[in-house]
Records
---
Amino acid sequence: MKMDSCLFTLVFGLSMLGGCLARVVTVSPGPLIRVEGQTVSIRCDVTEYSGPSEQDFEWMMSKEANGKKMNIISSFDTRYSDPSLSKRVASGDISVARLKDNEVELKIAEVKSTDAGYYWCQTPSTDSVISGNYEAKVQLTVILNTLKVSPLTPPPVVPEGSDLTLSCNVTRELSHPTYLSVTWSVKRGATSEEILTFGPQGDVVTGAKYTRRYADGGIRLVPGKNGFFELVISKVTTSDEGTYECNGTEWTYENGGKWIKIVESTKEMGTVSVTPTGQSLSVKAWSSSPSSTPLLLSPGEKLTLVCSVSADNLPALALEVTWLADGREIVTMELSGVVISNTSSGGAQGKRGEATLERTGVGEYRLGVRGVSGDDGGVYTCRIRAFIEKGGRSSGGGGRWHMAAEKTSSPVTVKVAQIKPSFTVTLEAVLNPKMTAEPTELACRVTNITHLPPGGRLGVTWEHTTLPGTGGGPQTSHPIGSLDGYGNLLPGSTYSDRLKSGVISLTRVQPDTFKLRFLRTQEIDMGQYVCTVSAWSVNSQGDIMNTSEYQSSQLAVRWDTKRPTLNVVAKRIREASVGGATFEMSCAVASENLGEAGYSVLIKWQDSLQGTVRTIMTLSPDNVLQHGEATDPSRRDSLVLTKSGPAEFQFRLAGVQLSDRGFYWCDITAWTKQQPGQAWTKATSAESNKVRIDFQENGPSYSVAIHSDTNIVNPWETAKMECSLTVQGSSPKTGTQTDDLAYEVRWFFTRLRGGETTTLVASVDRFGVVTKDTRNSSSDISIERKDTHTYMLNIHGTQDSDSGEYHCVATPWYLSASTGAWTQAKELPSSRVFLTVRFAVWDSLKLPLLYGVAASIGVGLFSLVLGLVCAQCCCRNTTHTPRSRNKLMDLEMD
């Protein structure tokens, strides 16, 4: 029984502790901006309360923040509303709906401008102790409905593959901070799909079926001025048919971080139908000139047929064009424009001529079969496959095509007669080169011409075969170029640039004589040459056709080649006998078997004949100057490399230092150009003799020493190490002037005694600028200059990680009396000192001990306070009578 009494007391005490929670009443974050005539919803909830779980709510409003309040509606008192609002409450225009036991929602079905003001949500008390807030307010702003949506009517019918532009104007009068969004959608029957939404924060959201299409660029948003927006749907298909709508929405952004739609308007733009490509696609095949049917050709002539394509949406289509002879594909132009020839050799179809296919105009494709024979006769048809790209302009095709239509033209019958001209072709050399760069001229002559019909013409094709092993590769043949029956020049791919620049020329000097001329013959031009003369006849349509071809015998063009050579001589112009003086040398180039050339120069240096070779400066054949890896960036102004003559260069080094002593020479490369505008080609290279800089230091000599006042310090003390320099002999000028002498001092540290791995701690240059390296220790470094020859390194707040071996390295700089320039002496390392920092036992233990003591005291104090609270709450006999829920009342408290 005693145990049950104690259990009851504990439960009662816990319930009393729960009653001490502070009540919190919250409403929708404001201020709220709403549009007149729209529905308004304001939520209110209460938490941290005691009493029954279901709470009641009362709503009031006032025009001003501190004005007189007017009762709106209550969740439990039907007579609560102000008489001026009773009709609106009775009609349901103003209502309150319970969402949860502790949450309700005030609704105004059609808000009016007079409803603007401040709204209070109040909860009557059911708590045993008054604590927290019992009401909350929010401001409601009501603005006029100024949203206007004005779409433009799209075209009712568009061809498949074309672009559809949907224009919509969405505006509103800006009186409060509101935002706009525009949404395009398409309706097919009873189903409506969203295409794209722009806004309200400038973002773009696409419908599920249009996401990839928008990413590919098939749908583009074009924002304009003054609320004008355009949505462009590229490459429409029949699936894009439907009724398009434009929706404009006005939004407000509330303090709670939510976008709230306050008014929207949807307008129908119009119904769009898409005309399939197959309805308008038309294909015709015909000869380029009027003729009888069937088309009659002579052997060797060229067959020319034209395939004409028309469609309502032709610019939006990608066409695959295929010519067929007797039902077999002979040539195809793919969507990418690549032409694939499918002519076969041998077999039942015989040997057909090589077929070509080219696009000659919009929707026109010309088939050409050169040198027709009897095997080229037959029935020719043109097949067109029309494709539409599914993606947009930014997709780059990506292979996402769908075939919209396929059609084949009516047939064209072709027959070939048997007439063939004959003649003899001879090739001779008019100018034969004796060495590289001399001109070459070859003449191709035609004799004994028979059966060339009236109006017939001659063309020529030149071909070159390299000598065996030329360039280290196999023997290859390349077409140089040709003159067709019209006299048009058709250059070969290998010789195209040289023909266009005029270095090589193809001419017809007489009706039966052709010439090939090289202005400057190169070594790669040696080899065997052949000319092929073709006879061209005019057919009944007025076109000229290639009817026969004859080839000359081979003609060899070659000469003895001599390799170019260079001789480079370097000589000293100015001697550097003391530090700070100027050194200057020149390099002259003499060449043989080279001709016109450009030169690149490398100035090289090594400290000894066995030392590492480094590059000081370079000069390209285009006179572009660069510094090499051995050049100190601070001394680049002291280095000069110039071209002093057609084949002579000068190098100058001002203010020489001890580190500049060594051997200098020129490495020169000759470069040639085969023709103007081409890149440089390396011909040969050579190095000059070496010129030496060797002078002795005439300044004073130095020594450096390091010492510390103590080698063992305690943690957080300051360790001091002094680096002192001693000048032996006279100073550069007077021996007493400190302005003529400066030092660069660096301190190094290694963890182990005698260790090889050292770390730079800090440095001071000769101008007094101090540089400290990044440290892992909490200690700090400073450098102090005590006098002209003494520098002090201070380690403040030493730690165990500062224990180790230290030494300094000094570099003296002195002002040369002979040249007046600063001269760098050699580096001087000091001996090493070892610094020991004692281990701090108390520092490593004091923080854990202090934390333990503080935690023990805190736990004890918390236990005492908890005991007192339990004694006060659980052992006191109190009786409390809850107040009425109708009004807020003051509570009596013990």
---
Amino acid sequence: MNRIKKSFIYLALIAMGLVGSSAMALETTGTPGAPDATTTISGKQLPAPAPKFGGVIKHDALTSKPWWAPRIVPPKKAPNILLIITDDAGFGVPSTFGGVIPTPTMDKIANAGLRYNRVFSTALCSPTRAALITGRNHHSVGFGVISEQSTGFPGYNSIIGKDKATIGRILLDNGYCTSWFGKDHNTPAFAASQVGPFDQWPTGMGFEYFYGFVGGDSNQWQPNLFRNTTQIYPFEGKPGWNLITGMADDAIAYINRMHQTDPSKPIFIKYAPGATHAPHHPTKEWVDKIHAMHLFDDGYNKLRERIYENQKRLGVIDKDAKLTPWPNEVLKPWDELSPEAKKLFIRQVEVFAAYAAYSDHEIGRVIKAFEDLGRLDDTLIIYINGDNGTSAEGGPLGTPNEVAFFNGINEIPVDVQMKWYDVWGTEHTYNHMSAGWSWAFDTPFDWFKQNASRLGGINQNMVVSWPAHIKDKGALRQQFIHVIDVVPTILEATGISAPEVVDGIKQKPIEGTSFLYTFDAKNAKAPSRHKTQYFEMMGQWALYDQGWLLSTKVNRAPWQAFGAANPDPLNNQVFQLYDLTKDFSQAHDIAAQHPDKVKELRAKFVAEAKKYQVFPMDASVAARVVAPRPNITAGRTEFVYTTPMVGLPQGDSPFLLDSSYTITAEVTVPEGGGEGMILTSGGRFGGYGFYLLKGKPVFLWNLVDLKRIKWEGPEALTPGKHTLEFDFKYDGLGLGTLAFNNMSGLGRSGVGTLKVDGKAVQSITMKRTMPMILQWDESFDIGSDTLTGVNDADYKPPFTLTAKLDKLTIKVDRPQLTPEDIKKLEKSMAEALDGTPLRRVQPGPG
């Protein structure tokens, strides 16, 4: 196209209002008004203003001139973008950074591009992910914690504001194909049902296509899976199917579909596998591969030393970095474990390692899809290892059921856990490994996920490749980078501007700093452009400032979620100071030598906290899970259903825990008898079910797969109409002295009575009840049971109800907690959880 024609097009577009007269970087193709015309946009306003009609309209079409608005496209050299983030993986997990777990895909990307050893997260999953997709700090976008802990303050409500558009939305309106695969933990738990609203789902945040699960984690064998906003049910996985492979298959199909439809259109994919968040669910093939390698036979202490030496040899940590000491007071050294414990723990970690290796392999298949299409050279791949440090939420002993941890049961004895040894990592477990392995996988740092003041919780690593642009292949970069820097980097790489207005709403500034400058070999040793960064998670905090790191001393291990909260997390702290320019691993506390620097950085943290909505700080953990939030059940005490339905998530369904309640089912039994699920919530790893079994009415509570309490009618229901009732009288929350067990409080006792046609047929006292949460990735279902069942010995899903459900009524008598009551919860639960018998109950029905 000659210069005169380009100028004509540009002037015409100015006249249309599509671009401003100062936007001289405009790129256009085709003839203005023709169907094949394209244009880039200034991007300051999204969506771009509708252009003025440029044709001619007369009374008849023959004398009129048609005109088409140009199709909006990205700048000519804008690359495909594959943004990968794995889950709960610390610095020492991948082989790329000295780990023993083979990650050849990450190795390959590193060798074709760059390694980064100073990449920082927020210390928790969905806060990191909210920062990653918006380019703003996690409190700035409402994700001071996960949505399941959200509270009614701007920094903590788990709502990404309309004034903070995501990278998906920006790229979409600039002509990209945009998609999201895997984990979505940025939809509020109280907005995850099919009643919507869907503006906080991936498809409502600019990602045109979504295939994955909503929530923090998911059973990889039987996931609560969505395509866009539609649940994929009945589940269509084949025997042995696993979501890690399933999402790779779907992503590859998407890449090919987009390329074949329009090869010129660049693709943006956010790829977020569930690995290696619990449950650790790899295929047997990968478990066998890792087992044959004997990587962990000498224990977690030796593993840590081996990873440290590997890191030194590879040069991915400073040559003088010190290995911080093993926490004997927190985690028992390997040599002090019993032979049975060692056997169990090795099984736990082999399954974890298999999960990591399996996920990396499947990521490689997705990358290969770009290569097979000849598009790899112009694909920017950002592969971030972990959204926080390795998780220790399994506690020192690990657990076959993570749901148990979130109900305060984090010390299931080794001999009890051994009952799951042969099925560890299969569909029969919701497993997590011992925290000893987690500490080792954060080498050379210490502590874990949740610990925002220690590098083990926040210092990730990353590899980046862009073959057409990065020439310094295999090199290491050590500049300070935070996940908020990814969005501005992508925008600079694509030549797309951050918008000033989206949907008529003025946008808050991007808070990150592009690290594109590090792609150039001449900037290999350039100073970090990201100068200052705060960290805060559940009352633990830190401030990075040009190499200095002010940290609060860890005062709570991640598995200690039920303890009394620090009442003044801003000031009631032991402060530590580190010079990361000389102390790579945060090993030498020099606070005593530099009191003025401590004072200066404390003041800077307060300023950053005010700026980014960190206040009010809250150190509570479990108490925030039970705090009220605006779900669709808020304020309701009665729920009526007249037709079958499935898929209502826990955050939007009637909450029966810590309350008295009555469930009444009016059914019509057909000739020949009835069977099937009337109502269930949760699944194999924690929940309840009300069903007909061989015609007999049954109500069952599954207490985190450790104990099952079952009420059963004495005989099958006769054909015709019947009224079935389960009435539970909870022993109440004595709000003056909240406690957990024998006093008033959460998770305490109650009497359940099953009635048939008004007559009580069985009463059982439950000495303990579930205090906090049901299995979160299983839904509230009426008329059948999706995914896993609450009692495998009785039925297999979907266990469709063959009787007619005329009416189902749930009435809940819930004690009302005052703010003062909420504040008392954690202290009282910590006291009551000490020694609770539920920890040592035998598994299986009974």
---
Amino acid sequence: METTQSFRKGRGGAQAEEGVEEGGGTRHRTKAVELKLLQLDSEDEVGAESSSRSSALMLQQPLKYKKMVIYLTLTGLLIFTTAFLLGYVAFRNSCHSCGDDGDLVPVEDPAVADQSDRGLLYMGELRHMLKKYLREEMLETTIRRVSRTTHPAGSSECNALAREVLQRFQQLRMDHTWTDSHYATLQFPSSSQRNTLWLVDSEGAELEEIQLSAEDYCAYSATGVATGGLVYVNYARAEDFRHLHSLGVSLEGAIAMARVGGGVSFAEKVWLAQQAGMVGVLIYPDPADVPQDPRRLGLHSGAAISDHVHLGSGDPFTPGFPSFNHTQFPPVQSSGLPLIPAQPISANVASKLLSQLEGPVCPRGWQGRLPYVRCVLGPAFSGVGGRRVKMGVFNSMTPVLLNNVFASIEGKVEPDHYVIMGAQRDSWGPGAVKSGVGTAILLELARTFSTMLQNGFSPRRSLLFVSWDAGDFGNVGATEWLEGYLSMLHLKAVAYFSLDQAIMGDDNLSVYTSPVLAELIEGAIKQVEHPKHPGQSILSHLENVGGGWRDGIVKPLYLNSGAYSFTAFGGVPAMELRFNEDVRPYPFVNTQWDSAERLQERVQGRLGSVGVAVGELVGLMVLRLSHDHILPLDAACYSNAALHFSSQLNQHSTELQSRGLSPDWVFSARGDYSRAANTLKEAIQNSDVQDERMTRLYNTRMMRVEYYFLSQYVSAVETPFRHVLHGRGEHTLSALTEHLAMLRSHPVQFDETRFRRQLALFTWTLQGAANALSGDVWNIDSSF
């Protein structure tokens, strides 16, 4: 080898020497010509011999100059082309806000050892790869596998499914797979005593028993017996109870009859009924809200819908604390647990009871579609004897071991920052929608990203895939994990995507999201084909039906969403996507009829294609979050909410000033936040995205925007949903706005001391968010 190298070196050295000698001779002759020309120019008199020599030399020069010009021109072109290509590559590497097809986000090829010769994959290639590897048949197979039997949390079926999910993760090219366990207290129907419903006389003697299914119940209901008159409360919303009070209907000591739906959860219905002084709640699916023709994919009129009634999330007996097996907290109970019993009933049972009521006629718009029912409010029953309703709820609390299953792909640049995808695994019934869809999409995304990893995909940030336990009981598994890492999660989690109930139809897309993530949506829906309208993207379909896409699909997070706790409790940007149908909502969730066959029939055989559409939407947004140098998050998203509240304060300025209250501090905090957000945006636009230190600083500030809006002045144990805009409690903007409205609607009920406290809590939370977003705590004033 050394001889060969010496030979090559010697041969090259000889050639080089020859080249130098030739070049030297040429340069010598050229210099002689130049010197001679200068001498000729400087002399006044030239001899004939010199003149003839000069003429001969000048005749030879044009040919040499032409060669030199051609040589210099080619050299210049080569330099220009090289510089252009280098500049083009550098620009493409630094582009973080180009168009959708602008080949964003260079990705290092891990197969290339020499980073100077790294392979690059751009967003167009990654998008093509994502679509190529997502498989319809895999999604359908998993949905059918998961929903072949009931699998409630803590059951052997659910534990077997957890082992299967873990095994599927382990078969993929994941960097880490693991489980974590929690001991939580869940409520189930009693095995020894069924829940009951009776008509009784004025003395309490039982006249008629109304049969209830042993499987239907409200988890975390208070237990015991309640007796009273029956009042129809529509959807049991806050405005419904206000309307009943205005009509003079007696609610104290009565049992509420409430419809499913209306934009409020079972837990909120029971809580509001309890606040109104009622002693129990019956909840039924009205045909006006839930289709009830089995021949046309409707719920059977004899079926009830079960749900939990804990006004919160997680284990209600360790509020604010994680239920890890190595922690032993003193017995405590969540303030969100109801103090009155609640029970789901069928439309048939509701019809039987409501048809016998007497009292004022229902307000306009309260009439449902129960057959043979004249809509009256109660609370009395027709006929003699002073009949009432007696309900008995005997559910039992049970400690259960829960298992969350995790898998991760490590990021190559920022491995400590995670983009999280998760889905509920348990279900009271077969759970095709409730748990099958989410689990299938989760596993398919994990398989797809793992396959992409083997074909050049190299994420900048880490990806985390999670299968949650006990979702039916109020996202218990997810919330317990959040509670365990609450002090650090906002430092690590970029965003969370909930895949729960992602397919309930195939027509309309709804996106329940933190506003911080809203900018991601448009790019995704522009690139994904609508599953029901081939040839059209989801965005173009929305534009064809009219209206702006934001108004059409973007909705706020809600209490029972799998994403809600991440934002309202943990301060992490979160999103949940769902295909549904407004005209015919899917009626089988939380029933024994939630099967893969009914879901497939509902979407007219397009279950796989709708699943792929959801996978693409989530996958595209995950790609952006895991690879862009600058995170595509909107730090200014709450400026409009603060501005809207400021305008409301202005409208009440006279009343406020008469009470010595000034909104000036709110205006100042709103202005500081708006300026801080705009300053950060401008700094990012003018920065070098290749500067890793600066990009990390900017990203850290943006990914904590939701955390900035968690009130630091209320307890995470007593008021877990501390977010001032998405949370629940006295500290929230909604509570402050409702109280402000009393200045004109009910000035006698306006509590000035309470309002001052509410205003102070919101103002300082907003000011704190502005200070944090500005970045430099020592130069806050100059930053603004």
